[in-house]
Write a structure and sequence with these properties.
Blueprint lengths: L1 H15 L5 H12 L17 E2 L6 E2 L3 E6 L5 H11 L18 E3 L3 E2 L3 H10 L6 H14 L3 E7 L8 E8 L18 H13 L3 H11 L2 E8 L2 E6 L5 E4 L2 E6 L17 E10 L4 E12 L3
Parallel strand pairs: 9-13
Antiparallel strand pairs: 1-2, 3-13, 4-10, 5-6, 6-7, 7-8, 8-9, 10-11, 11-12, 12-13
Helix pairs in contact: 1-6
Length: 296
């Protein structure tokens, strides 16, 4: 379907952009073999948080470092501390790690249920068929839990007014991190993508849902205005809430956490909404905090 094709295309672009040297794969293999306790960290402020390096046996610099900090409200530093506290297995592209810091939270979306699902789906549906033709199958997907709708009200236009934002979740193969043998100069990326797609399509929807419960559901956001679809939020990451303000996130690098040599790639970014872009029918956002793997 359209969503699966989009996810497959996105993954192919990402895989092409992360070709790495073969000797780096050996370093990643050693890193994966390290005991989980090597990822434990001390509970200290963000600027003084120390951890055992993911690929080492002794105390080293924090696992992550800030590569961009355009805020003065402490969010960039506070989230850095959360990243450095998070177990390696919790670092996923389609869901946030557990955030024990009460100041930083994932923005709460209220689930849409019952007859409102049909009402909202009719507003956000885009497809080749008419909505009336597509609805019976979509209704089954909602009942199965394959599609999930929720809503929240926050300023997504940077104008001081709250927008009505719908979040739709669905399973996607792109949420599963690439394994260490799915990247590198000696890897046929198209073959890897084809194999991943075939494996995904061979699964039942219930199996895809089970995988999504492990790795997270892909998010999509639609803004409603006066009972009509106004536009989309850029990106598909989860949204943070900090000091009463919403911040979209981009986890562009975490999908490839098992592929080494990410010094030049941002693993995670936090952005500020920058306004509605009518030519793209999109609510834009500008990165203000970015994080890289610390390999110094």
């Amino acid at each position: 379907n359209k969503e699966a094709a989009l996810a497959a295309y996105t993954l192919s672009v990402q895989l092409f952009s992360t070709k790495v040297r073969a000797d780096s794969v050996q370093r990643l293999t050693r890193a994966i073999a390290e005991p989980k306790q090597n990822a434990e960290i001390t509970k200290q402020p963000a600027t003084k948080t120390y951890t055992q390096h993911h690929a080492g046996n002794k105390l080293h610099l924090p696992r992550f470092k800030l590569s961009r900090n355009h805020l003065d409200n402490g969010l960039c530093e506070a989230f850095l501390a959360e990243l450095n506290r998070s177990p390696w297995d919790e670092l996923l592209s389609c869901k946030l790690p557990i955030l024990p810091n009460p100041v930083i939270k994932e923005l709460v979306f209220t689930p849409i249920e019952g007859e409102r699902i049909k009402e909202i789906d009719q507003l956000i549906y885009r497809g080749r068929q008419t909505w009336e033709q597509a609805w019976p199958e979509r209704e089954r997907d909602y009942q199965l839990g394959y599609f999930r709708l929720a809503e929240a009200f926050f300023d997504a236009n940077n104008d001081g007014k709250k927008e009505h934002v719908i979040r739709r979740l669905l399973p996607s193969q792109s949420c599963r991190p690439a394994s260490k043998d799915e990247g590198g100069d000696d890897v046929d990326v198209l073959s890897v993508l084809k194999q991943r797609t075939q494996e995904w399509e061979s699964m039942t929807k219930k199996q895809q849902i089970q995988q999504a419960k492990m790795y997270g559901f892909l998010s999509g956001y639609i803004v409603l205005q006066q009972g009509e679809s106004k536009g989309y939020l850029s990106g598909s990451g989860r949204i943070l809430s900090y000091q009463g303000k919403a911040y979209p996130t981009y986890s562009e690098g975490i999908s490839f956490k098992n592929i080494p040599d990410l010094n030049d790639r941002n693993w995670f970014s936090i952005a500020e909404f920058s306004g509605y872009i009518s030519s793209k029918n999109t609510y834009g956002a500008t990165p203000v905090c970015s994080y890289k793997l610390n390999k110094d």
